[in-house]
Amino acid sequence: MLSVHEVTTAYQGLVAISAVSIEVAKGEIVCVAGANGAGKSTLLKSIAGAERPRSGTVSFDGMRIDGMAQHVITSRGIAYVPENRRLFPRLSVRDNLRLGSYLYRGEVNREEPLDLVFKLFPRLQERLEQRAETLSGGEQQMLAIGRALMTRPRLLMLDEPSQGIMPKLVDEIFQAVKRIRDAGMTVLIVEQRMSECLEIADRAYILQTGRVLMQGSAAEISVNPDVRKAYLGL
Amino acid sequence: MTAETIIQSLASGLLMGLLYGLIAVGLALIFGLMDVVNFAHGEFLMIAMYATFFLFVFFAIDPLLAAPLVAAALFVFGAVVYLLIVRFAVRAKANAGMVQIFSTFGLAIVMRGLAQYFFTPDYRSVTHSWLGGKTVSVAGIFLPVPQLVGALVAIAAFGALYLFINRTDFGRALEATREDAGAVALVGIDKNKVFALGWGLGAALVGLSGAVMAIFFYIYPDVGASFALIAYVTVALGGFGSVFGAFAGGIIVGLVEATTALLLPPSLKAVGIYAVYLLVVFIRPRGLFGSM
Predict the structure, then answer these.
(1) What's the pLDDT tens digit per position in B172-192?
(2) Cβ count within 10 A of residue B113
(3) Domain residue limits, chain A
(4) Nearest-CA distance from A217 to chain B in Å?
């Protein structure tokens, strides 16, 4: 479904990822793990169109999307939840979700994914009239994922969904990711918390200083002795 | 000074104030949306007044009927100014603030020069329009009809703007872009389209006020300058970027101006407004209704 081929992206001359290739098949949960500064966020930005790769190609459903404007990539079916979530802070939860369905304005069933969103995150339904900035970190993450689901993506990309969130809610969010996949979507997660991520993922990649260090099934990676020592602290 | 004179001038101050609000709201809208001050705002007003004048002279269209046409024409003009000039000015890699200021300031000077060249510096006026020169008397207070209608147009325009921003998808997109222009792509919105619409809308609102102003004000190439100054003060007073702050700011400016006119000689009319402006920026720099 998604094919990233030898992508190199640099900021002001500094290479953040170098010739990175990853594949994501339909219906998978793929985890990209790695330490801070390994290039995980840059990888997602390069796919989402928030950064333009210097070289390499990104294809989605067989079509080249690298070089397309970010809003066009969103409309093609890739929803991206960035690290800092980028909600509309002074707008209500309801307005944030409604903006998620902007692409479907004028359609009668524009808010169809709302059922799923409320099933996954019932708290959002309780806080519909609250401003997004008044939500807790975990709730903001839920809203960011909810808003992304409203764009009806085929591929959902999450950048460090566990960041700045109470441990109890982290679990809730990872469980929600599984249910999102069960609802027919494909998920690509970037995470520093490798163990939780490997638990729900089908396959994983490990990035180190901008390159793919290792790849395999989540089961393989989680029993690999080097990974256990370096990343899982076992 | 009798109570009657005071009420009389406060009433006309209120009417002018509502029009000032309408002139300023486009400026506030654009500033709130993308932090760009349109220094050609007064010249937008000027071409709207000329457009109204020429529609009247050549096609005998009364300014009241011309108003929607002029607003539509200014909408297109505003969007084009964004797409051809401002879009590139905001991308400047160095001295971005200066580039923005001088790209619109330069536009103002060019527009004034073109107006002088094509329309000559002569003072023009729309004579014998439906409303021109008429007054009504309400409870002993005489109100000029053009200003009264202008005030009603301003209230209606603010009402429509409120509904547009709060009830339509495009209005929500506008608010979302104000909040975080870098995030709207996440929901599939093209921020450039929103910016172009914002410029169009801001220019249409000043176009509407230009059509009303043409009924009772002389039209000449520099006419925008004095109103632009009032508009900048209004926007600062109301709170930078706050659309409804501009409405309230306009009313305050109108009332202060009328009060000053009662107390000081006409040539010192601007003193009151400027004093209020300084007071606000010193005591409450974000303006009365602004948030930071």
Answers:
(1) 999 999 999 999 999 999 999
(2) 11
(3) 2-230
(4) 30
In angstroms, the CA A148 to CA A97 distance is: 8
Q: What is the spatial distance between Cα B7 and Cα B13, in angstroms, rounded to a whole number?
A: 10
Q: What is the pLDDT of residues A87-140, one digit of tens each?
A: 999 999 999 999 999 999 989 899 999 999 999 999 999 999 999 999 999 999
Amino acid sitting at position B142 = F
Record the tokens describing residue B217, joined without a space: 């004000």
Q: What are A's interface residues with B at a Cβ cutoff of 8 A? A: 49-50, 69-71, 74-75, 79-82, 86-91, 95, 98-100, 102-103, 105, 147-148, 150-151
Strand, helix or coil for residue A2: strand
Burial of B171-208, coded b for 16+ CB within 10 Å and e otherwise, reads bbbbbbbbbbbebbbbbbbbbebbbbbbbbbbbbbbbb
Chain A contact for B185, CB < 8 A?
Answer: yes
Query: E strands, chain A, where?
Result: 2-11, 14-24, 29-33, 55-60, 63-64, 78-81, 155-159, 186-191, 203-208, 211-217
Domains present along chain B, CATH in parentheses: 3-283 (1.10.3470)
Distance from C-alpha of A213 to C-alpha of A198, rounded to nearest angstrom: 16
Q: Is there a contact between B52 and B63 (Cβ–Cβ < 8 Å)?
A: yes
Q: State ipTM.
A: 0.91
Separation of alpha carbons B119 and B220, rounded Å: 8
Residue A98, CA distances (Å) to A71, A104, B172, B210 in order: 16, 10, 9, 36
**Sign of torsion over alpha carbons A33, A36, A39, A44:** positive
A151–B191 CB contact, under 8 Å:
no
Quote the CA–CA distance of A165 and B154 in Å, as a whole number: 48
| Cβ separation B175–A88 shorter than 8 A | yes
- Supply B176's token pair: 């979302």
CA B64 to CA B134: how far, in whole Å?
A: 14
- Domain A2-230, what fold? Rossmann fold (3.40.50)
Confidence bin at A173 (pLDDT 50/70/90): very high
Q: Which helix (H) or strand (E) holds B144?
A: strand B141-144
Burial of A138 (0-12, 13-18, 19+ CB in 10 A): buried
Write out the H or E segment, with its range, that includes residue B118. Answer: helix B96-119
